[in-house]
Design goal:
This protein has 491 residues and is an alpha+beta fold. The chain is 36% helix and 21% strand. The strands form six sheets. A six-stranded mixed β-sheet has the order 1-4-8-5-9-19, with helices on both faces. It has a four-stranded antiparallel β-sheet with strand order 13-15-11-16.
């Protein structure tokens, strides 16, 4: 083979065109700049659950759009309507930011999804530092939104920025869709995705989500999440609350009825008692069982992390499968019950239980709603109570599952190997990220979850953090990943 042939072979395989060392070096030398940008983003109290912070959230969306414009993106801010408030008024939803870098039809096109709203946080909640003042302690960057999801969003933006700064052509076309209502249900986003199906998403090949974390210290890629069916079960009895000393023993109490039916949802060993739920679950294949064997997970550390002496299951595979790929029932609270400090001898006239069932393939939320409603009504009927039961499902989010053998995941393995020098775990997520299933159902595109957050980042909790190492090396990972995706052959 002559020298010219070798040159073209290298060019075709991408060996000569991918200047990873130069790109990674730029990240390292601009580390403090990237952290300073994160500091500015963390300082914005973009709490989507608090309407008094809506101006801060709008400012956060403006900052995101401006950052994308500064690095050359074609940016749009899309109006997704208004939010209805309990008092009957409405307030404008924060605009969704979209951006595009490149439109070469010969290249793959990836779309990165993220959000820049955060969970509520106050110093007095138990934070060691001001949650809106990024603080570094022992290599960890503490602040609300550092890991969920401002840090990963910025790592993706910096990825494009680095290519641009070095005047190196992006190996793929890159699009962004960044929202500001994820923590409260992504209001307006589903309709926006449907409306943009044949425009913004028409040329997208793959969708990347980095709104999750690793399972352990070992890096990981996520190929599945559980869904969520959230229920209210309301039992109503007397016309008003009653004094237990005056009326106790003469009325059939709503709270007693409610506790009675809740006790029939799940056994002490964790078995769901609702007929039809367990039977609908996709069976665990031998191949899937083998995948769980290789995942890095320490049972004792897990117990210490959550502060318990005993778990529902004692071995790794049982714990992970019941955390990720089997449904669970969780009882979250009872509205109307006395819960303040002190004592109050009241018989509540109406109480509402709140519980959820995490969905997995092949469960259908509509069928689960029917099964739960009919089952609880039958259990309640056996009590022969004069009280009234009403069961309502207020959330019906479907699970998401990808093929972990898809080239997207092979590209991820190569990128992790290059940057972290390890083979990543392939994991699922026990929680729910509804937008993944929306993307899958509406656009039909292939999706991967590519996290850079650590297992101990404390998402939604006090002292949320993202390690400096994961933030900076994660940016390098994303740089390498774009190159690996560009190598996926078009068929």
């Amino acid at each position: 083979m002559n020298s010219i042939s070798v040159f073209y072979l290298l060019l075709w395989t991408g060996v000569s065109s991918f200047k990873f060392e130069d790109l990674a070096q730029y990240v390292s030398t601009h580390e403090e700049d990237f952290i300073e940008t994160l500091r500015k983003w963390i300082a914005v109290e973009s709490d989507s659950s608090d309407i008094t912070k809506r101006s801060d959230l709008d400012r956060m969306m403006d900052m995101t759009a401006e950052k994308l414009r500064l690095i050359g993106g074609r940016v749009e801010m899309i109006d997704v309507g208004a939010q209805a408030l309990p008092n009957g008024s409405t307030i404008a939803l924060p605009k969704v930011v979209t951006a595009q870098f490149g439109s070469d039809p010969s290249k793959r096109t990836v779309c990165v999804y993220g959000h820049v709203d955060v969970q509520p946080a106050k110093k007095e909640d138990g934070w060691a530092t001001d949650p809106y003042d990024l603080t570094e302690i022992n290599g960890n960057l503490y602040g609300r939104g550092a890991s969920d999801n401002k840090g990963p969003v910025l790592a993706w933006i910096h990825t494009v920025e680095v290519y641009k700064a070095l005047n190196i052509e992006l190996p793929v076309n890159v699009k962004f869709i960044i929202e500001g209502m994820e923590e409260t249900g992504s209001n307006g986003l589903d309709d926006m995705i449907s409306a943009q199906k044949d425009t913004f998403f028409s040329d997208v090949d793959y969708i990347i989500i980095s709104d999750c974390v690793w399972l352990s210290k070992r890096p990981a890629m996520t190929y599945g999440t559980r869904g969520n069916c959230y229920f209210f079960a309301e039992v109503e009895g007397p016309r008003k609350d009653l004094h237990s000393g005056v009326y106790g023993g003469t009325v059939i109490e709503p709270m007693t009825d409610l506790i009675g039916i809740l006790d029939k949802l799940i056994s002490p060993s964790g078995k769901i008692l609702i007929p039809g739920i367990r039977e609908a679950v996709a069976p665990l294949s031998d191949e899937e069982w083998k995948m769980y064997q290789d995942i890095e997970f320490d049972v004792e550390s897990y117990k210490q992390e959550i502060g318990v002496d005993e778990l529902m299951y004692s071995n790794k595979v049982d714990l992970l499968t019941h955390r990720w790929r089997y449904p669970t029932v969780s009882i979250h609270g009872i509205e109307g019950a006395f819960s303040s400090s002190g004592s109050k001898t009241v018989i509540p006239a109406k109480v509402i239980a709140k519980f959820s069932i995490r969905q997995v393939p092949n469960m259908d939320p509509a069928m689960v709603e029917k099964q739960v409603t009919e089952y609880l009504q039958s259990v309640f009927a056996k009590r022969k109570s004069p009280n009234k039961l009403n069961v309502t499902m207020i959330i019906g989010a479907k699970p998401w599952l990808a093929d972990p053998t898809h080239p997207l995941f092979e590209a991820g393995k190569a990128a992790f190997k290059r940057v972290f020098d390890v083979e990543p775990d392939l994991i699922r997520e026990g929680g729910t990220i509804p937008v993944a299933r929306t993307f899958q159902d509406v656009t039909g595109k292939s999706i991967i979850m590519l996290p850079i957050g650590g297992f101990d980042d404390g998402l939604h909790s006090q002292n949320e953090k993202l390690s400096r190492h994961n933030y900076i090396e994660g940016t390098k990972l994303f740089i390498a990943y774009l190159h690996e995706v560009s190598q996926i052959k078009k068929y």
